[in-house]
Design brief:
There is one protein chain. With 100 residues, the chain is mostly beta strands. The protein has two helices and seven strands. The strands form two sheets. The protein has a four-stranded antiparallel β-sheet, with no helix packed on it. The protein has a three-stranded antiparallel β-sheet with strand order 5-6-7, with no helix packed on it. The model has no long low-confidence stretch (mean pLDDT 80).
């Protein structure tokens, strides 16, 4: 078995995106869940630094970052269906949850 090196190497914790096998995803800095972000007193009083959605192509080793990190934004639950990636995006300072 041959292993291709990711470019650049980042040490991300990858999860295969449901619905396909070519891409992995990591929601960087998402060690906390959405429930804690909306109920924990600390996060109600302090801004969340935001996490970043990062896709990895297992065939080419390339990394893709479709959106930059932004304070109080949170990405999670990535799936692939009918040729498109879908994920949830929470904008915590606006009490907004969007499916993209």
């Amino acid at each position: 078995m041959k292993f291709d090196k990711f470019s650049p190497v980042t040490g991300n914790d990858l999860t295969i995106v449901q619905g396909q096998s070519r891409y992995g995803v990591d929601c960087q800095d998402s060690t906390i869940d959405i429930y804690d972000l909306t109920t924990d007193k600390y996060w109600q009083d302090n801004p969340f630094p935001g996490n970043q959605l990062v896709f990895f192509n297992f065939q080419t080793g390339q990394k893709f970052e479709p959106m930059s990190r932004k304070e109080n934004q949170f990405f999670f639950s990535v799936i692939y269906q009918n040729g498109y990636f879908y994920f949830l995006h929470a904008q915590l300072d606006q009490d907004q949850l969007t499916e993209l």
